[in-house]
From TrEMBL:
Keywords: Antiport, ATP-binding, CBS domain, Chloride, Endosome, Ion transport, Membrane, Nucleotide-binding, Repeat, Transmembrane, Transmembrane helix, Transport. It is a multi-pass membrane protein. The chain crosses the membrane at residues 68-92, 153-175, 195-215, 227-243, 255-279, 332-356, 368-385, 441-461, 468-487, 515-540. One of its GO terms (molecular function) is antiporter activity. Residues 600-664, 697-755 form the CBS domain. It is found in: Endosome membrane; Membrane. GO terms for cellular component: early endosome; endosome membrane; Golgi apparatus; plasma membrane; synaptic vesicle. Belongs to the chloride channel (TC 2.A.49) family. This is Chloride channel protein. It comes from the Eukaryota. Its main location: membrane. The lineage of its organism: Eukaryota, Metazoa, Chordata, Craniata, Vertebrata. Pfam families: CBS (PF00571), Voltage_CLC (PF00654).
Amino acid sequence: MVNAGDMNGSGNLMDFLDEPFPDVGTYEDFHTIDWLREKSRDTDRHRKITSKSKESIWEFIKSLLDAWSGWVVMLLIGLLAGTLAGVIDLAVDWMTDLKEGVCLSAFWYSHEQCCWTSNETTFDDRDKCPQWQKWSELLVSQSEGASAYILNYFLYIMWALCFAFLAVSLVRVFAPYACGSGIPEIKTILSGFIIRGYLGKWTLLIKTVTLVLVVSSGLSLGKEGPLVHVACCCGNFFSSLFSKYSKNEGKRREVLSAAAAAGVSVAFGAPIGGVLFSLEEVSYYFPLKTLWRSFFAALVAAFTLRSINPFGNSRLVLFYVEYHTPWYMAELFPFILLGVFGGLWGTLFIRCNIAWCRRRKTTRLGKYPVLEVIVITAITAIIAYPNPYTRRSTSELISELFNDCGALESSQLCDYINDPNMTRPVDDIPDRPAGPGVYSAMWQLALALVFKIVITIFTFGMKIPSGLFIPSMAVGAMAGRMVGIGVEQLAYHHHDWIIFRNWCRPGADCVTPGLYAMVGAAACLGGVTRMTVSLVVIMFELTGGLEYIVPLMAAAVTSKWVADAFGKEGIYEAHIHLNGYPFLDVKDEFTHRTLATDVMRPRRGEAPLSVLTQDSMTVEDVETLIKETDYNGFPVVVSKDSERLIGFAQRRELILAIKNARQRQDGVVSNSIVYFTEDPPELPPNSPHPLKLRRILNLSPFTVTDHTPMETVVDIFRKLGLRQCLVTHSGRLLGIITKKDVLRHMAQMANQDPESIMFN
C-alpha cells in the first residue's frame, strides 16, 4: 500500500492498521479462527517483546509484566468464580427455603441458619425452632391440618412460578445467550468458533442471577454446568483487559480452558477434577502451560469458595460424606449393574431430550419459551410437593442419599429396627432389619425416580440456565440407594448364602447403601456425559472416599461401554450437532476411503473458483468480487491462465485494507491496479497509483494434493485447527476445502443431513 506521495507503492499496510482503525486479524461473528495464524502472530509478538527487553530497563519490566499477565488473569478468574459460586450457593439455600417459610429473627437466614442461631432448638427437633415459621403458621396461625397443608402447597407453587417466570423473562429480554447449560457452546468456542456476546458481561450478570432463580424454583436442573459458563464469562472479561489475550483469539482460548477448570472446581469442590474435566471434556487445544494455569485457577477458585464457606460445614460441597466400611469383591456385581443402568439411562435421556429439543426447534412450541417454562415449572411443583424426596432441593436429596446411617441420623432412610442389647461404637453399627420408615422411603424414592427421569427430559434445553450434572446424579443416587438397601437386607436375612458367607458375618456392618448411591450417581452422570477419568476424580473429591475408586471406575467404564453401544455421542456433542455448530470432535473416527478431490469445491459443473491475480486486477475488480461472493477469503494466483498458487488473502482484511487506502491515501481510485508482489508491475504513464497488498497475503497457505486421502485431511483440520485448505495438482490450484465442507462430507458419509451444518 502506498503512503501519500509514494509513487512506487512500497508503503507498509500495517502502518495504517496499527492505528485505532477497524481491527485487522479479528474475525466476524459465527466464523472460525485460524489457529496457525494466531500461533504465528503470538510468536512474532513474543519475539518483538524479547528483543525490545534488551534495549532498556523499562522495556525489560514490560516484558516481565507480559510474562506474568497469564498468572494474574488466572488469579482474578479464580477469585471472581469462587466468589460468584459462594454467593449463588448462599442465595439458592435461602430462596429454596423461602418457598416453605421465613425466619422471623432475620428474613435473610435459611431454615438451617435460622435454627442454628436459636437457643430453643433441641437435638431431636433440630429442624423446628420458634424463629422459623412456615407460611401457614405466619398467615393463619396453623401448622397442622388440611387447610395449613393446602396453603403451604399453594404458596410453594406460587413461589416456584414466580422465580421461574422472572428467570425466563430476564433471559429473554437481556441475555438470550444465558439459557441452557453453556457447555456445548463452550466446547464449540474452544474449538475455534466465534459466538460474539456468548461470554459477554450481560450474559455473566443475567446467568448468575437467573441461575439462583431457576435452581430455587425446584425445577429438575442443576447449577454445575452453568457455573462453567459463568467462569468462562469471567475468563473472557479478564482476558479482554490484557492485550496479549484480547488481540489473539488462540491465546484467549487458553484462558477459557483454564476458566472452565475453575468452574468445575467451584461447582463440585473438586479442583483436580476440574482440571481433568477441562482436559477430557471441554478443551480442544490444551498445551502443558494451560494445564499448570488451569491447576492454579482451580486452586484459587476452590480456596475462595472455602473461605466463603457457603454450606457452613467447612467443606466445598453440600454432600461430603465419609464411610467407615470397606467394600468387598462380591459387591462389584451390583456396582456393574448400576453401571449398566447408568448407560441405559444416558442413552434414553439423550435420545428423548434431543427428540424433544428438535421438536421445540421445528414446531410452534419454540415460539412460546415463557409459556413452556411456566407449564413445566407448574407440573414440577404440583407433583414434587407431596413427595418429601422431590420437594427438597436436589442437592439436599443427593446429600441424604449419600449419607451413611449413623446413630444420630433422623432420616426415614435410617429407620432400622435396633437391637436393644447393641453396645457398638457409634460409627460401626451392624446391618439391621429395615423398619417401616425404610419401606415407606423405598416407595417414595421409586416414585421420585420415575418423576425425575421423565421431567428432566423436558426441562433440559429450555430457555433458562439449566445444568444436567445434579439431576443425572440424583437419578443414579436414588437407584443406587434402593439397590444398596436391597443388598443390605439380602445380606442380613441370608448371611448363610455362599456369596455372603465369606465376608458378611451376623452382627457385622457389611453393606453401605450410601456407597451404592454414590456409585449409581457416577454411573448415570457418566452415561449422559461419557466422562470417565474426570468423573471418577470428581466423585472421590466430592466424597473423600479414596478407597472407593475401584467401584467408581467399574461403574463409570461400564456405563460408558453400555451407552457407547447405542451411540457414541454424549449429551453435549448431541446438542452441538442439533444446533449445527461447526465442531470437529477429536473422538470421532473417519474411516471412509474418499479423496480430497471428492470433497473440494468447485465440483464438476459448478462455476470456477473465485481467485485474485497477483498483479492484473483493479481495486474495482476486487471490490466487485467481494460484493458478489460471501467467501471468507480468496486464493491468489499468478494469472487465471496458469493458476499457479501464490498465497491466500482473507476477505475481511481485503475490505479493511482497501477502505483504509481510500481514506488515507491520495491517488488510490477504482481503476488502481492491486498487486501482491514485492515490486509493482510495469504500468503505462499517467496510470493511477497502484495498491500494494502483500502484507495481508498469507504466503504459506496450507495445501494438499488432489489425491490426499480425506482421512488425512480430516486429521489435519482437527490437529491444526484449519479454517480452509487449498487443493493443488503439480503446484496448480484446483480447489478449496473449508471446515464446513469437511463437516458436510462427514455427515454425508454417516448418512446424516449434510445441510444440518448451519454456520460458516
